[in-house]
Write a structure and sequence with these properties.
Two copies of one chain form a homodimer.
Chain A: E1 12-14, E2 23-25, E3 32-33, E4 38-47, E5 50-56, E6 65-66, E7 69-71, H1 78-90, E8 94-105, E9 110-119, E10 130-136, H2 149-164, E11 170-173
Parallel strand pairs in A: 4-9, 8-11
Antiparallel strand pairs in A: 1-2, 2-3, 4-5, 4-7, 5-6, 5-10, 8-9
Chain lengths: 179, 179
């Protein structure tokens, strides 16, 4: 951030009075520009003993596999966001189920929220951001070509817990690589 | 948003190619300025059969009571955010416990995340954003002067479930007043 989005003047970094953190401050119009974490919301679409994954047609991680998920939009709920992303990426209709996982990614200022979901029919196909969309049984999961650690960790847990017959919500934190 | 925070040129509203929603777009430098929901994180600090509430020293809802909570900051986790807000507003040390509730507030682009927490000692006092901080038993809760619906709803449920002996995570949506 270099310029004030309210008045167009140059902003500077400083700690506002009564605050403890550096913010972008506009000395011309007085606006303080707060920056906060973004929510990424998605789901694990289930069909019998399979789950739906999408192969990414966009960067980052083009060509690798992930669950349907993306940035939550203004004016929607978490459930609506998960449904929308699943439709956009896989043209798939789902009924969102229980919350399965929340992961903090403090190094990139994101919070990932992952639901379980019921795939409603088999009429799915790649959306504009996907190269390929298909169902996987557990032995078929492409663990080596999953796009993100924040997908791999909950999916590992998902299959372990599913074999044990108890899927439980959990919360985790994924730091910068090597931490 | 009137000006591009990257280059200072005027932005305009439009739907970027491949997108479906209006965004602020800078035609000068090409940056698309996405706006996404913010996370408000807090906790219900418990001490024996009491919980800790703060009376707000700032707008909105100056003078009314709420649990310690506030906007999650970049580079922190949800748990760290809840701990920080509790220290800032009540000078209170807590050990954050289970996730208790998530509320969508799509009309103001917020997601509220509320944990249960254990108050670690009685050395609390009003922080700069609080007029007063105190412990309340259930009959003492100031239901008529709670600051927000997004506090009242989970607290109602908290006390019902506590009496039943089972506190369960739940998710809800609070719309605009009258909706």
């Amino acid at each position: 951030m270099k310029y004030c989005s309210s008045c167009g003047a140059q902003v500077e970094l400083g700690i506002p009075e009564g605050d403890t953190l550096q913010r972008y401050i506009c000395r011309a119009c007085g606006v303080i520009h707060y920056q906060n974490p973004k929510i990424v919301v998605g789901c694990i679409p289930e069909w019998e003993d399979k789950i739906l994954l999408c192969r990414r047609a966009i960067e980052p991680r083009l060509g690798l596999w992930t669950v349907p998920s993306g940035f939550m939009e203004n004016a929607e709920t978490l459930v609506q966001g998960a449904e929308r992303e699943t439709m956009e990426e896989a043209n798939a209709s789902v009924r969102i189920g229980p919350l399965f996982a929340i992961y903090n990614l403090p190094h990139i200022n994101q919070v990932h929220v992952l639901f379980r979901a019921q795939l409603l029919d088999l009429g799915f196909s790649p959306g504009i951001e996907s190269l390929e969309v298909r169902l996987f049984t557990e032995p078929e999961i492409p663990w080596e070509t999953l796009a993100f650690r924040v997908i791999r960790e909950p999916l590992k847990r998902y299959f372990v817990e599913r074999r044990e017959g108890v899927l439980r919500f959990h919360m985790g934190t994924i730091g910068a690589l090597g931490t």
